[in-house]
Amino acid sequence: MDWGTVSTEDLIDALKEVDWSSPPRPLHEFFSKFTVPRSSNKWNCRLKCNLYYYRTNYFLMILFILGLGFLRRPLAIVAAVSTALTIAFLNDSFAGTFSEKVTRFVRQISPHLAAKMRPPPMPVLRGRPSSKRAIYICGRPRWQFVIMSSVVSFTLWFVSCGLLILLWALAVGLLATIMHASFRTPNLKARLNTFREEFRAVWRNYSEL
């Protein structure tokens, strides 16, 4: 896969659609080999490849840095978890899995309420379900959960007076992510993984024809 032809918008869309439930890469692989990219084009390709391949590691690393910054502010830790949940809702796979698990739990308590949490039926075009549909969480559009979680997160940040610490922690976490993604040499697993994801995307588009 030629990451040089992948735009930033394509990378963001891929990160939204890919499954984030996979475990992080082992630490010995995450900190294995670092080299300086030989050109700006090599750096651009390496950055996108590593951001996609080590996405779970980077997400956990940012959460760890946030946790260190808020050891003396328990309420800020709750705000950080709420913020992470808000960001996770933007991923299609996480939103679907979260909705399914919550609905399954509610069904054990109240089947009638769980029936109301089902998403509306998919629109049908030419006798086949449309592949482009809105994402629902517990029967509600995803954007409602994102807005509600964002409001809760901002309120918690404001009450805990941890906005300045949040900005510093995010800056350190993002800088560490960019530095690692820039100098970590993509290994064979990363290349094979991107080729496999590319094949899945092509196969998915072919099956929708």
Structure write-up:
By secondary structure, this protein is mainly α. The protein contains ten helices and four strands. The chain has helices at residues 8-17, 27-30, 40-53, 55-69, 74-89, 92-109, 111-116, 142-160, 163-183, 188-207, and strands spanning 124-125, 128-129, 136-137, 140-141. A hairpin with a 2-residue loop joins strand 1 (124-125) and strand 2.
Keywords:
two-stranded antiparallel sheet, single chain, mainly alpha, two-stranded antiparallel ribbon, disordered C terminus, 209 residues
Work out the strand percent: under 5%
What's the story with the biggest beta sheet? 2 strands, antiparallel
Topology pattern, helix = H, strand = E:
HHHHHHHEEEEHHH
List the total number of helices: 10
Number of strands: 4
Structural class label = mainly alpha
Radius of gyration using CA atoms only: 20 Å
**What is the share of helical residues?**
55-70%
Query: What is the average per-residue confidence, as pLDDT, rounded to a whole number?
Result: 78
Overall body shape: globular
| Straight-line distance between termini | 23 Å
Strand arrangement, largest sheet? 1-2
Query: What are the low-pLDDT stretches, counting only 5+ consecutive residues below 50?
Result: 198-209
